[in-house]
Give the backbone structure.
Amino acid sequence: MLFAIAALSSQNPSIITIADAVFGFDPPIDPYALARAFQLDPYVVKTLQA
């Protein structure tokens, strides 16, 4: 299963993906905090962070 997260920006009319900023952050953000914020299973968050 693949999830994509995107946000719209008034400065750039195209879609800006924020998945790398959230799930690719170094050091990683606590997967349980992200799971709660995005209503995902912690296993899914850990998979996205890998």
